[in-house]
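Appendix B, example 12.
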Amino acid sequence: MVAAPGTSRLLMLSLSAALLAAAALALAWGALPIPLSTILNGFGLPVGEPPQPFETATLLHLRLPRLLLAAAVGAALAIAGTAMQGLVRNPLADPGLLGLSSGAALTASTVMVLGTVIGLDAMFASRWLLPAAAFAGAALAAMLVLHLARHDGYTRVATLLLAGLAINAVAGAGIGFLANVADDRALRSVTFWMFGSLGRAGWPELTVAVPLLLLPILWLPREAASLNALLLGEAEAGHLGVDVERLKRRVMILIIVAVGTSVAVAGIIGFVGLIVPHLLRLWHGPDHRVLLPSTALGGALLLVLGDTLSRNLLAPAEIPIGILTALIGGPFFLILLLRYRHRSELA
């Protein structure tokens, strides 16, 4: 099923408008409430009173970088999940379920624990070493999962999911071991990665993370036609002129960049790449030409709203964003499992 062009435009406009509204809410709502008119005045629109210096500092140094990072991470995770599902032709696939997030978190946690032992410079580790380690961990997990699932030239989806489950278990055990041997400072950092948070968002983190996150967000929609062909099957896609193996390598590299960078700056935030693609696929069908950009907008919307709630529901305490997405995504995944099990029983 392919939605009509008018429906697709309406979807994109609706998501864009909702994202703008969520961004305004994120900037205005907090321990220091800031009227929307004051925010608009601060960004150069002659509306309301100009912001006070403390309001300007709150907006520019706390809420705006956190908002931008939430939008970039949410968009990257959602579009990576969409691409993963298209690549393995399974709507239950998700980078987190396949071990990419856990692999990235394990290597990042290793750097954090070892960094305190050998005395690494904290700023260097945070800006450069952690993203590199997280990227390497996601890449290693992806290569291992794909190698285990590959047989006779085909990628077996059931084996892919089982291998991802095993990697999640091993990585979880490794992170648990590191948490037991870490000192208090490293333990707090490891806990941050495990539950996910955007509390460390700042302009230095944005300058490193956002260019990397924009790479999959902007490039993956260019693979939409090939992913559409792949929905017919690997052999059929090959007959249509798609180099399937090269497509898999390109898409997996982009997924690794999205997941590795997201884990490096925000820890493990699960289920974004599962919930958003499935809901939007129900709306307008599996056409990746619309699905990929719309899921990027939907992921940004989900994480901006989720982060706004996480820092305000129990203020002054903050709920890790990964807990909120897991509370939503866990039941959602169970519903999907029941739905597709029912389909298979009917088939």
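The first strand starts at residue 150 and ends at 151. The chain has a mean pLDDT of 84.
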